[in-house]
Specification:
Layout lengths: L8 E4 L5 H11 L3 E6 L20 H7 L3 E4 L5 H12 L3 E4 L5 H5 L3 H4 L7 E6 L14 H7 L20 H24 L4 E5 H7 L4 H8 L16 E5 L4 E5 L7 H8 L14 H6 L1 H12 L4 H10 L4 E3 L3 H5 L2 H5 L3 E5 L5 E5 L23 H8 L4 H10 L7
Parallel strand pairs: 1-2, 1-4, 2-3, 4-5, 5-6
Antiparallel strand pairs: 7-8, 8-9, 10-11
Helix pairs in contact: 1-7, 7-8
Length: 402
């Protein structure tokens, strides 16, 4: 089966995570991604740990598998000309340089549009292309902090805590994926491309759920609550005899509360007006919390899982990464895939979560060594003859090593 995006060509100027995560998602769906890297070292993530046994970066491989790597010095006039030629035969250009960089190179959307009016141009940056912060550099932790996520993450009264994954980068990558697909769909009607401006800060705000609303409606500033939910109780992690579980009873499922009370052998709580529903239990959290904490310490995690799942109560273990990798559901869904590093060593990466009935999805190939596809780009994508390829190699447009 072909991927649903087969035939789509993307010029990928992005580095590190947000942009590469976006283009990896599109590549897994069948798009042809030409990763344009600087000749001097390429994407910085190539030097980022952990490393596979052959010295290749796992970090790089995880979000760049299946892409074609070409090297272009965009400050070299011939290198710039080659890039512009690629734009003419591509559908998407995506970059995550500091705002203004593409303008200075003469490669902004306004520069490229006359060459290919159908081009969709996406820019990912920390704070967007406009506004008082637009020229500031921003990595994931900066956006998690400034975007409010760290202000509501962690234990009450504790130090600010960064989410355990680069959430701001990844969310920006996912929103860029959505935006590109929307722009490409719109292009089918209008025949024209457009520019997509993605701010990591904007994306961070968009996933704060009700935190903004709770502040604007009540004037109270949301604070870190550990694993708790601000509205529903019980909805958090509890320690058991041997590890931890999470329980989640939400509003509208009031029949769950009596079942839980019976399971913890506290049927006296069922008709207690202080715990009548989720909102009231949240208001009386300081009363109900020690009761629940004491109860869950009486059995092991597995015992609680079997009992509560049998009662239809939403419950799950707090898994380590080792637990997740070996989880039968993860294995059944084929969420782990083996790909090869640029030098051929196999490594396990996370597969795409997108499953389709008629279209293939998943890693499209190995990671590429820096500039591995330069000759392919010149001969097959641009259709240049051998003497032109030799002249380009001698020009320094691809870097001194290519």
């Amino acid at each position: 089966m072909d991927g649903s995006l087969s035939g789509l060509r993307i010029l990928d100027l992005t580095r590190i995570l947000a942009g590469p995560f976006c283009t990896a998602t599109l590549c897994d769906l069948g798009a042809e991604v030409i990763k344009v890297e600087h000749p001097n070292g390429g994407d910085l993530s190539r030097g980022t740990a952990p490393f596979i046994s052959d010295g290749d970066s796992y970090y790089y491989l995880s979000v760049n598998r299946g892409k074609h790597s070409v090297t272009l010095d965009l400050t070299n006039e011939r290198g710039k000309e080659i890039f512009l030629d690629l734009v003419k035969v591509s559908d998407v250009v995506i970059e995550n340089f500091r705002p203004g960089t593409m303008d200075r190179l003469g490669l902004s959307y306004n520069d490229l549009r006359p060459l290919n009016p159908r081009i969709v141009f996406a820019s990912i940056s920390g704070f967007g292309q406009t506004g008082p912060y637009s020229d500031r550099p921003a990595l994931d932790i900066i956006v998690q902090a400034m975007g409010g996520l760290m202000g509501i993450t962690g234990e009450p009264g504790g130090a600010p805590v960064r989410a355990g994954t680069s959430l701001s980068d990844i969310v920006a990558g996912l929103f860029t994926t959505n935006a590109l697909l929307a722009a490409l769909y719109e292009r089918e009607r209008s025949g024209e491309g457009q520019m997509v401006d993605i701010s990591m800060m904007d994306c961070q705000l968009s996933i704060l759920e009700s935190a903004i609303g709770r502040y604007t409606l009540t004037g109270q500033i949301p604070q870190p609550m550990g694993s708790r939910h601000p509205t529903f109780t019980p909805f958090q992690a509890f320690q058991t005899q041997d590890s931890w579980i999470v329980i989640a009873i939400v509003g509208g499922l009031n029949d769950m509360w009596p079942r839980l009370c019976a399971a913890i052998e506290r049927v006296d709580l069922i008709d207690d007006p202080r715990f009548a529903d989720g909102n009231i239990r949240t208001e009386n959290y300081e009363i109900i919390s020690p009761i629940l904490n004491e109860a869950f310490l009486k059995k092991t995690t597995q015992e609680w899982l079997e009992e509560l799942q049998g009662l239809g109560i939403p419950v799950g273990p707090v898994n380590s990464i080792e637990d997740v990798v070996n989880d039968p559901q993860v294995q059944h869904r084929e969420m782990l895939a083996e790909v090869r590093s640029p030098t051929g060593t196999p490594a396990v990466v996370v597969n795409t979560p997108i499953k389709m009935s008629r279209s293939a999805s998943g890693p499209q190939g190995p990671g590429a060594s820096l500039g591995e596809h330069n000759d392919w780009m010149l001969r097959e994508v641009l259709g240049l003859p051998a003497d032109a390829v030799e002249a380009i190699n001698a020009s320094g447009a691809l870097g001194t090593e290519h």
